[in-house]
Amino acid sequence: MSKLVYLVPLFPLIGFLINGLGRKSISKSLTGIIGSGVILASFIVSLVLFFDVKAGHTGVVKLFDFITVGKLDIPFAFQVDQLSSIFLLIITGVGFLIHVYSTAYMHEESSDHYARYFAYLNLFVFSMLLLVLGANYLIMFIGWEGVGLCSYLLIGYWFKNNDYTNAAKKAFIMNRIGDFGFLLAAFWIIQQFGSLNFADVFSKASGMKMNDAVLVGITLLLFLGATGKSAQIPLYTWLPDAMAGPTPVSALIHAATMVTAGIYMIARSNILYTLAPTTQGVVAVIGLATAILAATIAIKQNDIKKVLAYSTVSQLGYMFLGLGVGAYTGAVFHVMTHAFFKALLFLGAGSVIHAMHHEQDIRKMGGLKKALPVTHITFLIGCIAIAGIPPLSGFFSKDEILAAAFSASKVYWVIGVLGAVMTAFYMFRLYATTFLGKFRGTHEQEHHLHESPKAMTIPLIVLAILAAISGFVGVPAVLGGSHELEHFLAPIFAGSVKLQHPHNINHNTEYMLMGASVALAAIAILYAVSRFSKKPELNDATSFGKVLENKWYIDELYDAIIVKPLRGISAFLNNIVEKLGIDGVVNGVGRIVNYGSRQLRLLQSGQVGAYILIMVVAALALFIIQLFVL
Amino acid sequence: MIALILSALWGVVMMFSGIFLKNKKAAAPVAITGIIALLIVSYLEYNAVLYLDADIRGMLKFSAFGQVFTGVVFFCTLIYFILNAAEFEETGNDTFEYYALIFFILSGIGLVTYFNTLLMLFLGIEIISIPLYILAGSDKKNLKSNEASLKYFLMGAFSSGIMLMGIAFLYGASGTFYIDGINVATAGFSPMIAIGLVLLLISMSFKVSAAPFHFWTPDVYDGSPTVVTSFMATIVKVASFVAFLRLFDNAFGKVHAQWQILVALITAATLFIGNITAVFQQSVKRMLSYSSIAQAGFMLLAVFSLNTFAKEGLILYAAAYSLATIGSFAVVIKMKDYSLEGFNGLGKTQPFLALMNTIFLLSLTGIPLTAGFFAKYYMLIGAVKNGHQTWLVIFAVLMAAISAYYYFRVIQAMYFKEGNAEAKPVSAVFKYTLLFTAMLVIVLGMFPSLLTKALY
pTM for the whole thing? Predict the structure, then answer.
């Protein structure tokens, strides 16, 4: 069965080719059916694969030899195991819902742009599948670059808007900085292990001693790649800008694809990280710092998508915290639950924007509860899930990470809970400002308020159900569950678990920790709802709030310390070195040759006498050299 | 041996068939039959199927190198005949005689390839030169053609005198015309040997149009009918090179160090003058004349380094350079206007001719995947392995870079300039032959060993 794994990425690739090449001739409805259908087909194959894996059939499926140079052999091979099969389900499942949603959301586009959109979307899913399925770092890197490219194409989908294309460029450049780290790591791995295949690298690495400098270096470089793709400090600034793309694209980037790539990569390389505790410390601290920084920024944002964007950055921070403290299962678990509720929230936001005729400022909304009943209920479920209120999914996954953080360091836990409380606060600030209170938009907008079509609400409902119940696959033992996900993923993380010190917190402590975080989140929710449903923040923030609203001025900081000096250097290189130096030399050589040609040509006078004279002189010179010089 | 005799005989056959067959159009088939016969005979001789054992007093020496080279020459001549059949008919009324002269030249080429005495070398050189003086002036009504013929004759006579004088000095020093004997005599390296050597060096440099003895080349190449220029610049020139290489390898190889610097100076001068002067030329025909001087500079590297790479490389260079130049000239001949402007927009009006010409020009530049690349590579690697005068290699590479300028100007004109380049109509045979030639250029650029391994 696992032989059919190539079908999973093949379907979206076919969809991309059909929609991309036939964009001028295929009708809109057919485009939508092809675009969504190929993802559904992938999902079905993934589902079959998942049960196959669950029955114990894992392995590497080699398609063909890709690069064979000297001793280096890199096959084009796919890794079929527990970790990749879970990600396949998330990518194709959530991806499919987003495709269906898009068919309605993008209906205003002209038919060739509509097809272009679906082509990119399919390519995006294809790249992500390649990333997850690759059985070596090279195939992973192909997918890694692919999602970077597709995010660029989709963020800049409305390419006539300059700001949007700038956002696309920003995403691309930030990603490229991270990719640079990934590439260096890959070269280092080749140099150190002589192979890029996961199986070879991991088995050779597990023989190395703890905190070996090479391993620390490699893992840090890989982590640099992850910070680019998964929007962590210092490369996170592209993600909030990335909402310039159509809203379903944001959902795809933030939930099912792209940002989870970094998590996946580290989870895949878990043995390397476990062997490099120094790197793990860095990962945990960066993750935690990102979680808290993004949460503070989210509190003061007024754009519905920006709040969600910063919440993604913040939640990704939690996942890295989990990876950093060795809770690999927890991180993957949180990827999964986050995929459901974040896709739900983004699609819900899209539904709101759709109803409000492309209004994204929550200060101009309010009271949408009545007009958008389905969107309202599903959005509320998403908010509760992300806030970590039991028994919805976010509670279980976040709690697992926080519990692991607690056993690693109590400070991690305190800051983590603080972030969780802020999450609850800003999510319900968003919810209350948008759905509760009175409508603050124009009459025109109020008149046209409408619930979205079925193609949009059904994905919302499906995602809401998943966001509500998906936590039950990972109910911890302390709550009487058996944590099925952990058992399922056990083979992947077995090597790491053996090396880790078992951290058993006793049950009473664990109850206390849960109780504290839930209680604090609940208080934050109640406060936010009661405050913002009556009196939303309509004016621009002042004093410290202004700093938060302006995202700590990080973009401006980057601009001042990196972009401006770089521009200065490149202006210098362009105007002085290139124009005067290099061009001068190049054109000078050309001019000298031309001049020489014009002069030398005059020797060719046409007079036989002159020719013979020159020949005689030359002959004499040769005689002198031969007879007297040599 | 049989091929050598046959080539001379076929020249006579051509002349007589001119008397019996009045129709100009009959000339080309007879000539092509002859050249195919020559090819078959030389192939059989190469494989030692045909064999003629005549007592020639060791004046000629047959070797695999020479046989492969004459094979290349006959093959290039075949392509040359097919591509230029129509032009021969247009040049004048004596079509049969033109072909006859070319067959005589081929027998001369046989002599300079196989010579074992200086007499045979001189005889071969003269047999090549005298028909060329006539061919250069074959466009009798054209003043420029007459001028070219006269100039070529005057200066050719001058160089023949120098060569004879050199032979006389060597005979005086060694008492023999046989090159093996001269090789023995060079051991002492008396001034007489040195003088003879330099005189021969000058006259051979003249024949291969090496600077500063090249002055006849642009005037003669430009003035002669283009169809003749095409032959002179390719087959005749590479044959002279083989003579040059064999003479200096077999007769003066032992004292290589004594004269190497002279060849290096001549090579550098040739590369410099050929490449630099070509840059300014406005006529593609004249540019190709200078390019032939520049290419001669590269081939001189073989005489400079005298090792295995040089010998293999010279064969490869002969084939690569001849095929590309014959092809490029065949396109030039079809143009209404030989100036660079005349090629403007050929890529649109005649895409096939433009594409073929591009391949030939790329090969002349030495771009990888064309035969010209490996030809230049062998020459350079030979000079590097030789170990002396490394500056010459660097200089040669720089000059090759300059050559890209004037070759690419033609490509630029054909594809990137607006214009309405006009070309004469071409036959299907011409097209297929040109395509075949271009493919050969590419095949040799990928598998140069196809040719070089025939030497062993």
Answer: 0.70
